[in-house]
Amino acid sequence: MKTKKFILGIISLIITITSCVNNNPINQNEVKFSNPKETVKETIKETVIVKESDNKGTTDNQDSNKTALVPFVPEPGKSSEETPAIVTPTPIISQSPQASVSPTVSPIASPTTSQSVSPTPTASTTATTTATPTPEVPASLNKADVTQISFTLSWGAASGATSYKVYKDSVVYADNITGTLKDITGLTAGTTYSMEVSAVNAGGESTKSTALSVTTMINIEMVTIPAGNFTMGDTDANCNGGQPYCGGGQYTIYVNAYKIGKYEVTNAEYGKFIDTGGYNNSSYWTANGWAYKTNNSLIQPHYWTNIRDNKPVVGVSWFEAYAFCKWAGYRLPTEAEWEKAARGTDGRAFPWGNTVPNCSYANFRYNGSFCVGNTTVVGSYPTGVSPYGVMDMTGNVFEWVSSQFQTYPYNATDGRENQDNVDSGVPVIQRSISCYFGNSPFDTFLRCSARLESGAAGYGDGLGFRIAQD
Which residues does residue 331 pair with via DSSP β-bridges, in sequence order? Predict the structure, then answer.
């Protein structure tokens, strides 16, 4: 019986090897013999993965790493139950044809404390330095001593700054400035400049400050009027029986020294106010004036033709005249200043004296006919000049002054010079006479004492103004 089992095992082994060589898988649970009448079934309890040696008849189409499934064969004299064979598969590693070498795997040793190596830090080749922060942005830019060609720019000190840089119209004007002010010179009269300042230190340059807009004074020729007394007003007799805008008595008034424009403000000069945004900047206007301008959508005077000539500007309200003067660095003359500049201190009736007016002295309506019928270039009547050399103090255009209409005697402290409360309906004084007025050579409006009043929102094609300055 044992011999029979041994023979069957050998036969089973031969069949298995043959099947593997021919790539013919076999049923591991059944082996069939050529004799159809005898079928031997053998339960394969274990298979072992073995490496076929290259010197045991390996064919060309066989992989050198090819494995075979070999059924377990019990040892002679022992049953399968008696000899349990458990084989742990071993990985097959391709070796050279001469020898089959089992791989040797070295375990990875766990590092011990003594074996642990900390990475070596890379040495820095440069010293570590702390960067200097850039300074703060300069603030509180201000202008002072503005003239036709220069002004002084100042600003607040910036923390961390060692010097400052000044920009004019986005271009560096000066740098390495150690103080907080700089004289800006070589400018053009009546021109607006955008000024900025930055702070500088070893860490760099700060952001530029908020821009400050500075407009140089326009080059308006001025006449200086000395301080002192003069006779203001007129008698009713001198005013042909006391017309509404003349008379009221004569008074001695003291006036401090001041300057007044030699001519009326011209279209060319007023055009610069328009060009530089005068109608878009509320800082030039009184609060009531800005409301008037806004409500009426004003962007220029009435009758404006954009002809930049030397005729007096007309069509301006009192609010517009005030704004121009503020923009240009001047002011409107008071009623008293205007009259003193026109007549001097000797109490004369007309700027040129007491001679009866005619068209050689001024541009007005003479004996029912116009001398010209329109405004003329300022200074066109030198024979009509005042004692101080001021031109066109009668004729050509009516002129706004700063004073509100009140009765005589004139008093600068009684509220009539409070320009902030002038509203559209508040009557304000006009002086002189326009080229369209005057019916006789003795007309009241030709006299230096003549005064007319109108609401501050009024305007006309024969109404302009001139400037003054302390």
Answer: 468
Tokens of 291: 């409301």
**Residue 262, Cα to own-chain centre: how many angstroms?**
40
Give me the torsion for CA of 106, 107, 111, 112, rounded to 10°: -100
Classify 417 as helix, strand or coil: coil
Token code pair at residue 400: 């706004």
- Where b means 16+ CB within 10 Å and e means fewer, 72-97 reads bbbeeeeebeeeeeeeeeeebeeeee
pLDDT (0 to 100) of residue 39: 41
Contact 342, 387 (CB under 8 A): no
Phi–psi pair at 40, nearest 5 degrees: -110, 125
Could you tell me the two tokens for 352?
């040129």
Mean pLDDT of 149-170: 96
Give CA torsion, residues 285, 289, 293, 299, to 10 deg: -40
186-232 per-position pLDDT tens digit: 998 878 899 999 999 999 999 999 999 898 888 899 999 999 999 99
Nearest-angstrom CA–CA distance, 386 and 340: 10
CATH of region 142-215: 2.60.40.10
Peptide bond into 409 cis (omega under 30): yes
Q: At the topology level of CATH, where does 222-469 sit?
A: paralog of FGE (formylglycine-generating enzyme) (3.90.1580)
Rg over CA atoms, the chain: 57
Phi, psi of 352 (to 5 degrees): -85, -10
Does the global pTM surpass 0.90?
Answer: no
Contact of 47 with 70, CB cutoff 8 Å: yes
Task: Kindly report, as residue ranges, where domains of CATH 3.90.1580.10 are found in the chain.
Answer: 222-469
C-alpha 322/C-alpha 293 separation (Å) is 12
- Identify residue 215 by its one-letter amino acid code: T
